[in-house]
């Protein structure tokens, strides 16, 4: 009589098919391709803001914000991408260091917003929230969703993480941040209060909802 | 496992057969009062489903240990009852680790260190030489050998995900 445990091993071995291992460089390459598509979309549909167009002609903008805003979200997106590669395998560890760039970016923006609010008051600051809110929100949410769907198809559904909630959150943060960095190439709303309340809220909303939905999908 | 990812059924069967006793021992040591056999089967199934997450360039045992640990935690959570569980991180021969797998992992891990450092560690930990003997045979300063081995072992611990367990020099 055969051992039932060996039967399982026999059946797993007999049904074995070749499989392609997860390769981090493919994720990086795919994400960069997606980012280029997002930038193309924003430049064709909305147009790139004049200060950034001027950079091609060697003209440096008066303020750093037109460059700093896309860079801030790009940094956030790339850090999240790096974290996604670290968390996608069973032995991936959750480390505080992964969240430091996120905390630094958030602190910097919140600090600037607080300064602005203290200087101008809410009434004046609130006026800087008028303009492009719908397109900002819809681009980040829809673009992030498209990115997350592709990420799920090619990477996340094959992942085996020990931290499903964290991986769901960081994946959504990555997609929303990269989409926000692409949209920021067009958007000329540079007030910290706008970056926190409009960009920040769109990214946070997308991340929160995706985390709730994704944590179950990433369980294995 | 690399051969298994390529579709070699014989190598895969041999791997699963050699892992079974290790998994049994791993779960028996950490879980008292649970169905260890069930857990072994669930882990083998998960290993099969997620075999593409193993990086062929990395050591194998930290990967399978992480899969086993995940299934153990999942089992305890789903069992919804109190079970005694010990989450020790040591992955040694005490769990019946196959020497073939251990040798393969040691080779993979040492390959990630600078050649000289890997050689010092190999001479001390595998050949059994003392620091002075290594220093004499390689013409290096004993203190430099000692420091190099200490740092190398710490790097190896980090590579297999062992946290601050302290490294004994000799």
From TrEMBL, chain A:
Q: Does the keyword Transmembrane apply?
A: yes
* Key words of the record: Membrane, Transmembrane, Transmembrane helix
What Pfam families does this protein's entry cite? NrsF
* Transmembrane spans: 27-47, 67-84, 96-112, 132-154, 166-185, 191-214
Write down what this protein is called: NrsF family protein
Q: Which organism is it from?
A: Asticcacaulis aquaticus
From TrEMBL, chain B:
Q: Which Pfam families match?
A: Sigma70_r2, Sigma70_r4_2
Keyword Ribonucleoprotein tagged: no
- Outline the extent of the RNA polymerase sigma factor 70 region 4 type domain: 105-156
Protein keywords: DNA-binding, Sigma factor, Transcription, Transcription regulation
| Tagged with keyword DNA-binding | yes
* Every RNA polymerase sigma-70 region domain range: 18-82
Similarity field = Belongs to the sigma-70 factor family. ECF subfamily.
Q: Which protein, by its recorded name, is this? A: Sigma-70 family RNA polymerase sigma factor
């Amino acid at each position: 009589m055969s051992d039932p445990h060996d039967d399982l091993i026999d059946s797993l071995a007999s049904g074995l098919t070749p499989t392609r291992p997860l390769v981090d460089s493919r994720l990086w390459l795919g994400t960069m391709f997606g980012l280029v598509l997002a930038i193309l979309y924003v430049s064709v549909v909305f147009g790139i803001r004049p200060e950034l167009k001027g950079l091609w002609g060697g003209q440096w903008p008066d303020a750093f914000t037109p460059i700093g805003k896309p860079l801030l979200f790009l940094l956030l997106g790339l850090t999240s991408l790096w974290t996604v590669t670290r968390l996608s395998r069973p032995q991936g560890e959750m480390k505080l260091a992964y969240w430091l760039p996120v905390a630094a970016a958030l602190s910097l923006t919140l600090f600037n917003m607080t300064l602005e609010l203290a200087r101008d008051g809410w009434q004046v600051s609130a006026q800087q929230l008028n303009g492009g809110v719908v397109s900002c929100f819809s681009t980040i949410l829809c673009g992030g969703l498209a990115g997350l769907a592709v990420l799920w198809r090619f990477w996340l559904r094959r992942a085996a993480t020990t931290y499903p909630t964290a991986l769901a959150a960081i994946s959504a943060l990555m997609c929303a941040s990269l989409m926000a960095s692409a949209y920021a190439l067009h958007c000329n709303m540079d007030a910290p209060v706008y970056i926190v309340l409009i960009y920040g809220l769109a990214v946070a909303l997308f991340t929160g909802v995706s985390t709730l939905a994704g944590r179950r999908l990433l369980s294995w | 496992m690399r051969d298994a990812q390529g579709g070699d059924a014989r190598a895969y069967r041999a791997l699963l057969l050699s892992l079974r006793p290790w998994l049994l021992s791993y779960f028996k040591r950490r879980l008292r009062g649970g169905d260890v056999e069930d857990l072994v089967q669930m882990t083998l199934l998960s290993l099969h489903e997620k075999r593409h997450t193993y990086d062929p360039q990395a050591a194998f045992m930290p990967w399978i240990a992480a899969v086993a640990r995940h299934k153990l935690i999942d089992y305890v959570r789903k069992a919804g009852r109190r079970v005694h569980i010990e989450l020790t991180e040591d992955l040694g021969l005490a769990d019946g680790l196959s020497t073939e797998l251990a040798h393969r992992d040691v080779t993979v891990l040492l390959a990630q260190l600078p050649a000289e450092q890997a050689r010092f560690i190999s001479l001390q930990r595998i050949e059994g030489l003392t620091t002075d003997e290594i220093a004499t045979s390689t013409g290096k300063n004993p203190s430099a050998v000692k420091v190099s081995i200490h740092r190398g072992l710490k790097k190896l611990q980090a590579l297999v995900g062992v946290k601050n367990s302290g490294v004994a020099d000799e």
